[in-house]
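I hope you will forgive my troubling you with a question about protein structure. I set the record out below, with my sincere thanks for your time.
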Amino acid sequence: MTQRLTAQDFDQELLILFDAYVHGDLDRRGFLAQAQRFAKAGVTAAGLLAALSPNFAAGQQVRPDDNRVKAERVTVPSPSGNGSINGYLVRPGSASATARLPTVLVVHENRGLNPHIEDIARRLALDGFMAFAPDALTPLGGYPGDEDKARSEFAKLDQAKTREDFLAATAWLRARADGNGKLGVVGFCYGGGIAHWLATRLPDLQAAVPFYGNSPAPEEAAKVKAPLLVHLAGVDERINAAWPGYEAALKAAGARYSVHEYPGTQHGFNNDTTPRYDAAAAQQAWSRTVTFFKAQLG
């Protein structure tokens, strides 16, 4: 079996370049040109990009056909002007038809509803939650099956409408008869920023868990009523630079929050489809997340 690469197998400057590429600050050509100086021992810049890119099969923890979960594709009406948003709804396989489950909205990174985020939803279902993962790329045809295309399409979205789509998704999920009326949200990177934002928009949200997401403006902190569980990577200057100001505003507002920074980890450390994955930190963060949701959502 081929040994999986980790962040320690790459130069930190290359990881920073990759982060810039993933978040649209550097195009493919620019990444390859700058990554060339790290190519050695017969490994090309294109080979480095391939090695850093997601391998969904390697990270899958719960198969789509696992009988411990019940998964379905659904469409949620949206008043944003996009018409509707598609998503992936997963319930525990053992739950009866009359069971009223705690609900969690799962918000993807800046590539739409890819196989990794679907797997996250299934993991939550195994822990007893009804999880719903919307696809923000619905207006542009949905996740295209290619991460580069997905990232390119994502940049074309009208973010004001996209945020309204997420609000519609939360309302739809909370109103389901098979839910217990309590709602939490977890998001990763872009989705972490949406989790933060939803906490400023929904005073009746029960819990929000942003993984390395952009913080709202400090003046928005006073609107946060839901308890927050914030996960930060240790080596993530782009995200971490804004956190102290927002944390100070949360404290001043009396918000309920806890924050964990995982030393030595990279942005995206919970994503087990790429070498930036840190198994120990991801397991600890996920355990904290599940415990938090069980306490807040009941």
In short: DSSP finds eleven helices and eight strands in the chain.
